[in-house]
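Q: What does the assembled structure look like for these inputs?
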Amino acid sequence: MNERDFLQEITRRTLFKKVGYGLGNVALATMLADPAFASLVTQQKKRQDPMAPKRPHHKPKAKSIIYLFMAGAPSTLDLFDFKPVLNKFDGDYCPEEYLKGERFAFIRGKPRLLGSPHKFAQHGKSGQWISELLPHLAGVADDISVIRTMKTEQFNHAPAQLFANTGFQIPGRPSLGSWLTYGLGTENADLPGFVVLMSGAGNPDGGKSCYGSGFVPSVYQGVEFRSQGEPVLFVQNPEGVSSQIRRDSLDAIRDLNSMRSKEVLDPEIETRIAQYELAYRMQTSVPELMDISDESKATQELYGVEPGKKSFANNCLLARRMVERGVRCVQLYHRGWDHHGDSEGTDLTHGLPELCRQVDRAAAALITDLKQRGMLDETIVVWGGEFGRTPMIEARNGVKFPGRDHHPKAYSMFVAGGGFKPGVSYGKTDDLGYNPVENEVSVHDLNATLLHLMGLEHTQLTYKYQGRNFRLTDVSGDVLTKLIA
Amino acid sequence: MRVFIWGVGMAALSAGLCLPLGAQTAAQKKWPTYTENIAPVMKTNCLSCHTGKDSSAGLDLTKPEVVKSKVALLIQRMRGEGGKPMMPLGFKAVPKEQIAKIEEWAKYGAPIGGPKRTHWAYVAPIKPKPIALKGWGTNPIDGFVLERLKKAGLSPSKPASRETLLRRVYLDLIGIPPTVEQMDAFLSDSRPDAYERVVDQLLKSPHYGERQARFWLDLARYADSNGYEKDLNRVAFPYRDWVIEAFNKNQPFDQFTIDQIAGDLVPSATLSQKIATGFNRNSMVNEEGGVDPAEAHFLTIIDRISTTSTVWMGTTLGCARCHDHKFDPISQKDFYKTYAVFSNVDFRRDGDYEKNHHEVWREPAIKVITPEVEKRRALLAAKTMLAEANLKAEFDSHQEEFDRWKSALATGDKASPVRLLNPRSNSGAVLSVRPDGSVVPSGQNPAQDTYEVEFAITNEGGKALKLDVLPLDKQPVGRSPGGNFVLTELDLVVNGVRQDAEIAKADFTQELFDPQSLVGGSGKPGWAVFPQSSKPHTLIVSYKSPLPSGQAKLTLRCNSVYAQHNLGAFRVSLVSGEYPFIGLVPEATKKNPELTMVQFAQSSPELAKVAKAAQAARMAQANYEREIPSALVTAEKPAKGILKAAVHHRGEFLSPGELVNAGVPSIFPQPAESMNRLSYAKWLVSPKNPMTARVQVNRFWAQYFGRGIVETDEDLGTQGSVPTHPKLLDWLATEFMDRKWNMKAMHRLIVTSATYRQSSVSSPKLQERDPENLLFARGPRVRMDAEMIRDNALAAGGILNPKIGGPSVMPFQPDGVWAMLYSSEAWMTARDAERNRRGIYVFLKRTAPYPSFMTFDATPREVCTTRRSRTNTPLQALTLLNDKAYLEPASALGVVMSSKGVAYGFRSATGRKPSAKELVVLNRALSSFKAKYSAKPELAQPLGGSATTAAYTMLGNVILNLDETITKE
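A:
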């Protein structure tokens, strides 16, 4: 039996088989009166939807993931990977041996090296090197582990974001969150298992496919929670529909559906009855979740939230509230890190510090807050973009603003909590920060590790499509055992 | 004799269903052989790494003798024994029973046995003999279905009720439910062939093409934007309309295929055939800065190969991009042979990757000049000609005057400056007169100011007054901080008598500040000249009667809402002569005879009228030209000999290797000629091709039954699922070819079968024995697809707009869905009936598709999709309950019910009369809504006003949310 059959069995037919004529809603008085159904009521209390929690492959260390995706690709040579030698040779031509056979998105001709205009210092007991642009994250240096040797296969934004999120550069594959909910389900039936939150300058370049479900059923796609308007599309009753009227209409829908179910014996109807009840509960649980005003002043202050705005800080706090309520995967996107230096606003001395200001405090607050609440152990926090940036100045069309081109060969990300070792600086790049020289980490390695900590073996979490067993990690990926606590 | 391998999946299927199958029973009580039992296990579990000369550990397990010699080791490693990691490394363990089988095989001497077999799908189908129908069935389909049912000990269900059947066949063939009137007509039609008559009528409906296109457009990955980061909108709908039209005119599938893949290469290709090649152009285009255009092009071609092989061959050719196919007999060379076929498409380079980091290889677009367009064009051209002729005639009749005008133009206007006396401001500015007669304000610049000057008129007969505003001393012409002014009143009094102005014209006018507003009326908004405030300007005002001689007083008022917009330096002249405005004709115009004519036309009302008409006709013509849509098409570069492509090592763009000639995978019958797209397309639909017909009929079947005879309709290869009715599949495939690829005939065959006409009501026995309805012991009961749910709701409310084709439409969608896109394109919600067009026309932006469709499992069409998932989620419930796009049809359905009754509305949505019990529930809901809205009338406001209207809207909402409403029963 392939995965599709398996899944359909879970979602529909098994339910019917096990439950006979089926009964999606326990409160169905008319059906309860019928003794044929009475004995099945207890079985109904167990969730049978495709999002019901499933048994992992092994004992998980983490229950949830919060992925802070920095779309546009942060210049991590100016944030986490301290390169004094690069600083020393600032302005010199990049040595030829690096450039042979290289293809750049924007650099043309012979590029010059660009040292970081920002100061670095060691922080915490771990002594991790962190730039002055991230003072708050420096404060949690002992809780985060920086991977300095990330490597990807793509050097344009859209394909690289798809690659990071779905393991493949072309749209159509399931994203990390889809794989997680497909493999593990989610604990809170009243909320989606995979939530997406946006801030910064627009959606990710890779579009909705970055959090799409690809070829696994669309029930596993990321659900976008919005900062403005309805938090989830269509969660609010339209104007003119009070909650009393909504309840009346739901009762009528349920009664009519139940009558039909008895008539045609399709278990799909019972599932639908249950989904309508869940929808009704979501109408309460979602607004309650999104209302951050019930957080203490201290917490709001810690994150620097701006209620009512589209802000990374709000989203970080919401992410914590979501994992607190059992959401499996919260994917944040904050776009705007594409610091080519083709103008002043997009350079390393103006654009980059601004983006750091938007992100630093809230990202650090999230870690502090999770830790204070004892949730960090069970929650993975990941921070990073789709690729790195060149050790050379881009100097597009001869401009002089300090900026860097796309660089897939080495970049930094950080991970925290959820079973990762804290305070580790993992991997080493060469003196220019051009190539990894020790402990290179591929995107697949990282994704394999994330799945592993969530209790899933990346090689076994497969879905058969077009005759092939697909995985998030395609055909490679090693769990980073050295980074696991 | 041909022998088929039905694959290992069969064991699971038959175990689940307790179905006796020929292949299984025949193998009973025989020793396992390599071919029969072991090869499939190897294939599933081992060959992805252990294949060919690059095999892991040098162990090529495609060779039976290798398996035989290493069998003990293989078993050990599969069990994870011997202290080494379990094989297959990184994949699911080999099932215990399969390992046991290998052990058993080894124990009995590991016989290789059996002939080498070709997977069934790679062998051309031979038409099975139909089974004689006894007692049940209308056509050969039923014979094959019944045979399987009998083997499983099941029997067919009773026919569906006429109500249910009618709705089912309407939805299946045209995607729109029958109206209540159509239901009644059918229910009262007692002719024996009443159903067949409906079927034939539906097959002739223009909506048939729309319904069929819904499936095809998923395969063709049709969308209205380019995809990836920028995802700019594209005009692609001519292709979509071509598809609809092709289905409607029942183009045979072979031609349908050739036109789409290579219509441009067909000798003397028609416009329609060129538009059809838009199929290839539906690939995404990555326009992100810094993308290597050659690599983007490489990926585009690969997308075309993958799509074409999935759509026509049900084969995952894309797997062979990087290496030989692990499971199916397709090599990497085969992949690049196909690449070569598609590689020679024409494009132009837009941008320069090396210099500007941005370059896109753009394939051509052509204007869609249909006969209708030609007709309309001719009409508009004729109208223009007529208008031009009128204009010329009018000119001819004014020839003498025109000559006079031209000589006046040559001499210039007869303007004589007047000497201004007693200039004064009423708000404190200082006005001084220069020796040249001009007046210059200075000093205070109040919010509003009024200047007065006096002068003497000595020359009688002048008709007009000229005001020159002057940028003196490098000052702008106005006194506002921006250098502008707004003159709101110009009042001339001679000898105490106010002069009636007639026309005011200026050489330059700021948008919306027409000087004619100074004549009569309120003087608002007045005359202003931004952004040309540093240049001199001229205003001429003509009067109804010639100005008398005497003492004149001129008042210039700047009294606008814009503070300090007071006039700067100015001079006043009196203008005489027949053409007072001639001084305003720009110098450049004087040299251009045509423009001169235009200017002259302004001088006479009759002339102005015909000139305007001529201009309007020309504009209409130009606008129409712009509106003619473009179609994205495929074109071929001139071929230089045989088409070739490099085999790319590991499929990487940067690693091209040896060259191969264009061709088809070697497993298939090889065409004689050297290949290009046209011969490739012809090869796809050659009767010798074993795949194409099977793949298509399998999809037809899935359209009706919710799943194909082979469920994995995208893959009929060795890894695909096993056909539930192999004989039926082959019969349908051969029948399709025998009927000359006639699609309507195949659809008719299926919907007139007894199998299709069965009731979809299940039974405890069927739920136990065949819950998935794999054997078709009952009719299909399937949730509608996203577009149909919406179409059905609109149709139930009686507001579905049946218009076919044209640009994609934007119905209501919540604010903000397009807010965060890279491009700044806006969702412009369609008005009125346009928003009620069918779902197939809803604008599809790939990075932000229509949200409610996505919730109901539609696809963003970034890549080819052969089948959608069918989920059942709370977000779907929220969408149907609360989305305004579904509230509008609910309200329309409410209006219908308020006049025709609740039962009528229920029928409109579900296709059947409600039972007495159901009516009780519906009426109870209606009264409870009424009571609540009556108690709180303000609540009813947004839902149509009265409590009754609101209550009916909510009842419509209830009906549109029923499982039955969104299900094809």
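Chain B touches chain A through 114 residues (CB under 8 Å).
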